[in-house]
Amino acid sequence: MAEPFPDPDAAFPALLSRLIQLLRERPEREAEVRRVVDLLVARVERQEALIEAGIENSWALDGDPLKERLQARQVDAIRIAAGAGAVELLALGRALADDTAPIPSTAAVRVKLLPDPLPLMFSGPREALADALATPVPRTRTGDQLVAMVEGILRELEKALARQQWLAALHDAQAAVRCLPSVREDLRRTFAIALKRLLTRPVVEALIEQGYRIPEEQSRTAEVLRIAGYPAAERILDILKQSDTIGPRAFLLDAIGGMPEASPLVIPLLKSSRAADVRLGAELVGRLGASEALKDLVPLVDHPDERTRLAVIAALAHFREKAALEPLRRALTHPSNSTRARAGQALAARGSGAIAMPLLAALESEKDSGTWEELLAALAGINAPESVAALTRIALETQGRFSFGKGQHRRQLAVIRVLVAANTPSARQALTRIAADGEGEVKRAAEEGLRSEK
Question: What confidence score (pLDDT) does residue 46 get?
Answer without folding.
Answer: 86
